[in-house]
Amino acid sequence: MLSPSPGAPTLRCRQIAETDLEAVAALLARGFPGRGRGFWQDALSRLTQRESPPGLPQYGYLLASDGAIVGAILVICTTMGVAGAGTPRCNLSSWYVEPRFRAYAPLLVAQATRDKHATYVNASPAPHTQPIVEALGFERYCHGVFLAAPMLNGLFGGARAAVLGAGQTPQRRYDASAQELLRRHTALGCISLWCETAEFAYPFVFRRRRIKGFVPCAQLIWCRDIADFVRCAGPIGRCLARRGMPFVIVDANGPITGLVGVYRRGVMPKYFRGPERPRLGDLAYTEYAYFGL
Predict the structure, then answer these.
(1) Quick check: 248 and 148 in contact, CB under 8 A?
(2) Which domain holds residue 155?
(3) 78 and 159 both lie in a single domain
(4) Which of 36, 116, 225, 255 lies 20 to 30 angstroms, CA to CA, from 71?
């Protein structure tokens, strides 16, 4: 409990419960006017259907004043690693506090990042919040994005490869542990694919997006390594182009050798805090996969 000043309403910071979801959806709709209440109801419903690691929140945290919800931060927690035996990773998302209580917004982050064993990721900080994120001890691990036109790779004499849907079983050697990840992301509305070469079948997850609201593209959500995407760029790019997505957004810290495109520093930067630095090309089980942000 916290009282901002004598005679002021008492504030409480606690985990979001299922009974809070309608009120949280209404709050986030006010805080993010570009998305309606229905969007947030659907987003929170998706979090209801997942299983959070033990001891970590199902939805996130809220700030309440005399029973009214005045702030919220969503936290998407996943155990990364083989068979879910790795480090917990928590994606902080959709942070909003009503203007009157804005001075107490850091309480939400302090509450949401108190597990010293988890790695916390802020993958979509608004420009005006980035200094706050850095002041809270977060380090930028992704400085920008590379906007690629992968369909141009290997147009003349490139290596042959077949692109398969996530529900198909590759004929070549493949990483069986990736099958479940592809299946789950397909259920979230992502585009999950195998790119089968003569030696190996490489797994990929993409999400449909629009640049500046109208240019169709795909965002690379997950792959084993960015080098895999470069290797399979041509076949994957032409497959995505046939679906109306000629460009692919790839997290990057500079131009990517082997891809045609342009690097944009400062666009869509990403931050982390905790024991395990995230790698580029891994936005699995984050807000980008769950919400399509």
Answers:
(1) yes
(2) 144-271
(3) no
(4) 116
Per-residue burial over 11-40, b = 16 or more CB atoms within 10 Å of its CB, e = otherwise? bebeebeeebbebbbebbbebeeebeeebb
Strand 215-223 to 247-252 pairing:
parallel
Looking at the structure, do residues 149 and 118 belong to the same domain, yes or no?
Answer: no
Q: Tell me the pLDDT tens digit for each residue of 183-223.
A: 999 999 999 999 999 889 999 999 999 887 778 999 999 99
Contacts of 277 (CB under 8 A, 6+ apart): 119, 141
Classify residue 279: in a domain, yes or no: no
Cα–Cα distance measured from residue 82 to residue 243, given in angstroms and rounded to the nearest whole number? 32
CA distance linking residue 192 with residue 170, whole number of Å: 13
Q: In this predicted model, what pLDDT tens digit does every residue of 226-256 receive, in sequence order?
A: 999 999 999 999 999 999 999 999 999 999 9
Question: Which DSSP state fits 291?
Answer: T
Same domain, 149 and 117: no
Domain end, chosen from 89, 122, 155, is at 122
Residue 134 domain-assigned (yes or no): no
Q: What is the number of structural domains in the chain? A: 2
Please tell me which residue, 175 or 75, carries the higher pLDDT value. 75
252: in domain:
yes
Q: Which residues contact 58 (CB under 8 A, 6 or more apart)?
A: 15, 16, 18, 47, 48, 50, 52
pTM assigned to the model: 0.90
Distance separating alpha carbons of residues 258 and 19, to the nearest angstrom: 50
176 shares a domain with 259: yes
Give yes or no: residues 200 and 242 share one domain.
Answer: yes
